[in-house]
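W.,

You were right to be curious about this one. When I first looked at the sequence I had no strong expectations either way, so I just let the prediction run and decided to look at it fresh. Below is the sequence, 271 residues in total, followed by the output.
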Amino acid sequence: MSVHKEAKRITTHTLREMKRQGEKITMLTGYDYSMARILDASGIDVILVGDSASNVMAGHETTLPITLDQMIYHASSVVRAVQKALVVVDLPFGSYQGNSKVALESAIRIMKESGAHAVKVEGGSVIQESIKRILSAGVPVMGHLGLTPQSIYKFGTYTVRARQEEEAQQLMEDAALLDELGCFALVLEKIPAELAGEISRSIDIPTIGIGGGSQTDGQVLVTHDLLGLTKDFHPRFLRRYLELFDTIKDAMQEYIVDVRRGDFPNQNEQY
């Protein structure tokens, strides 16, 4: 029975049950088939096809340049690799803000063309019409509050959000609203741990933190950061489990030396 249970797909309902039972939710980003196979094999609950692909896959400074077509490409690659995890896809900047009809069309394109299981949007009351419209079509929506990277030019900085009472209150209200509207989960990014805990206890849907402390219902990191494939990003919330940048570079340099010395390929490595 346990083997059968292990193979069961994670759904939005699973995440709610996990919160109810006090079981922590794990989420990591994935952008391609090969990495998504490893992520799924690890037993991760949720794979987020993040618009952070704009940074880590395409080398942009912000998440703003990535397009809906590019997000669908990344999501399709991930979905083809996954058998168990819930696949959530970021709606990119400009594909849902300000026009709920465009938001619905964007969400439907992601679901139809990639085969993903849900979409994620940034913001609270200001985008509630878009959220309502997407949900009305039966598309599950994950919310995202706190530091919302698509609004970076409005904030002007990546520093911690909601330290002031007024912004903290607004965040609490937005979290309650997203719960009420019918979002299935909520990412809380770079906010004080106590506030994240307060929000997590006050709403029914699971919260997933990134720089939100340990009192959220789950955690998310960018996979490339966790593995140490990125070198120049050192926020307090990041724990690097490996330093793959150096490991991979060393392997490549070994290959270069072997080829130049005539050691590769050897007798057993040719036909």
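Here's what jumped out at me. The two ends are 48 Å apart (CA to CA). And, maybe more interesting for your project: Residues 47 and 267 are 43 Å apart (CA to CA).

Coffee later to discuss?

I.
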